[in-house]
Design brief:
Shape: rod-shaped
Oligomer: single chain
Radius of gyration: 36 Å
Structural class: mainly alpha
Number of helices: 4
Number of strands: 0
Largest sheet: none
Mean pLDDT: 92
Amino acid sequence: MLKKINDFNSNLAARITSGVATMWCAYIFAAIALISLPSAIKSGDLITIVAWVAQTFLQLVLLSIIMVGQNVQSASVEQKITETHTASLGEFELAKEARELNREEILELKQIASDIHRVLKDIEAKTSR
């Protein structure tokens, strides 16, 4: 039962977060905040106007805008990570191919060295007779 409640809470939180992290939500919050702007201005009190800007407008609107910005930045970072991963895999494949070529070259060099030693032994055998 507790797992179902936790799953429900997690899903609800994810949906609310997805909804709040949109520019449409920022526009709605701005419209809601603007409803009280005439009263703040009409009061003529500078503290009331500053409080409206700080507590009403900025807190409501910036919440959504910051979340949208974080999502944009996350997507950008995720894309860079994916590109780096893909490039790294490509480099790894190139390194494997280079290693295989080096292995083949070493085998060829060993064969050439063996052939040279055989030829030198043949020459020594002929000159020592």
